[in-house]
Amino acid sequence: TYVIALPCVDVKDRACVDECPVDCIYEGERSLYIHPDECVDCGACEPVCPVEAIYYEDDLPTVWADYYRANVDFFTELGSPGGAAKTGVQAFDHPLITALPNQVP
Ligand code: F3S
Ligand code: F3S
């Protein structure tokens, strides 16, 4: 799967959402998250992110290794909705993201 890391937090450019052929990039309050089971590893989202927040799981920089779990665990309650557009914006984030100070002063 692909993973969205720290640079997305409080930026949420959303260019990635328009590229994803399976609509598996879901929106939380301060970040977006890629559904690990719905992502088909097409890689279309990765080059369009202006802040380089998206990585294939094996290429995730070590400092952001925890973001793999953040993307997976974001869906603990949501399950596999099968489409981000119909699911809409969630009013929560993974605790790792919630704990961060504002990233865009
Ligand atoms: Fe975030 Fe980059 Fe997508 S900032 S919303 S991962 S285009
Ligand atoms: Fe979509 Fe990116 Fe996966 S475009 S299918 S989230 S690699």
UniProtKB/TrEMBL annotation:
Cofactor dependence: [4Fe-4S] cluster; [3Fe-4S] cluster
In which domain of life is the source organism classified? Answer: Bacteria
One GO MF term: 4 iron, 4 sulfur cluster binding
Q: Known Gene3D superfamilies for this protein?
A: 3.30.70.20
The UniProt record lists the keyword Transport: yes
Provide the cofactor note recorded for this chain's UniProt entry: Binds 1 [3Fe-4S] cluster.
Keywords, comma-separated and alphabetical: 3Fe-4S, 4Fe-4S, Electron transport, Iron, Iron-sulfur, Metal-binding, Repeat, Transport
Function in brief: Ferredoxins are iron-sulfur proteins that transfer electrons in a wide variety of metabolic reactions.
Concerning PANTHER family, the annotation shows:
FERREDOXIN (PTHR42859:SF2), OXIDOREDUCTASE (PTHR42859)
Its name, as the record gives it, is Ferredoxin
Q: Which organism is it from?
A: Cryobacterium cryoconiti
